[in-house]
Amino acid sequence: MIIEIQAKTLLAHSKHPDPWFGIKYTMNIYRGCEHQCIYCDSRSECYQIENFKDVLVKVNALELLEKELPRKRTRGTIGTGSMSDPYLPSEARYNLTGRALEIIARHGFPLHAITKSDLVVRDLDALRQINRTLAVVSFTLTTVDDDLARKVEPGAPQPSARLAAMAALAGAGIHTGVALMPVLPFIEDNEENILAIVRQAKEHGASYILPAFGMTLRDRQRAYYYEQLDRLFPGLRPQYEKRFGERYSAEARGARRLEQICRDECARLGLETAVPKYAPAEQLTLF
Fold first, then answer.
1. Could you write out the three-class secondary structure of the chain?
2. pLDDT tens profile 108-152
């Protein structure tokens, strides 16, 4: 169900940019997600989304953004995609993210968008304008196997579509790469999967890979994920319960080895393992 709401604020801020994504201001125009990935952390109770199948649309987002951006004394990277994909199927109808990017470009703020959708290519003109400061687009890829993705990310565009979008953005000079996270234990935590993602990313114009080898498993997220394991991967749930119990996080099997394999392959292919970050002097830095 799509529910239109009036939000009180749009941009959340942190004292310092986060070390992973370089984000200082977080913008979530949507709550809930039509992609319905079986592992999504945003189902957790702490996010206070009662029914994750409902998508809440902040229909006054553009008005709020126009008010809030001029008040920001510190120019920092605006991040979108942390709680809900900015390019849900609903975005094709509302075009709120697309119009928000135009506002961001006009005010000269940098951007880091994280998405599983090829719809981002629609906003290439706005991204080019933002890139006069800094525009970064990270495509989440947990696998490049379209058949497996249909199981674990049933509502999202296929990895092949994301890779094609990545190539289009890279060809236009946009900084683009892969958020290789999560890596699902017993499903995606193997050398073949990791190397395939890295190599396909390189072939499609990525300049970086941002990897994290494991997933979160907490309260409602865990319950939903286990239900989907029973349906899609019979027999895996007991292995999770034995290995991880009630722990908050579930590390990939052989995580250190997989991380080394990933970093070695990135080094061989000339890929960074961090995202380009905005600096006040408007120089790109890699940390």
1. CEEEECCCCCEEECCCCCCCCCCCEEECCEECCCCCCCCCHHHCHHHCCCCCCCEEEECCHHHHHHHHHHHCCCCCCEEECCCCCCCCCCHHHHCHHHHHHHHHHHHCCCEEEEECCHHHHHHHHHHHHHCCCCEEEEEECCCCCHHHHHHHCCCCCCHHHHHHHHHHHHHCCCEEEEEECCCCCCCCCCHHHHHHHHHHHHHCCCCEEEECCEEECCHHHHHHHHHHHHHHCCCHHHHHHHHHCCCCEEECCCHHHHHHHHHHHHHHHCCECCCCECCCCCCCECC
2. 999 999 999 999 999 999 999 999 999 999 999 999 999 999 999
Highest CATH level, class, for 2-269: alpha beta
Mean pLDDT of 152-178: 98
- What is the pTM assigned to this prediction? 0.94
Structure tokens that stand for 97 in this block: 């993210």
CA distance linking residue 148 with residue 150, whole number of Å: 5
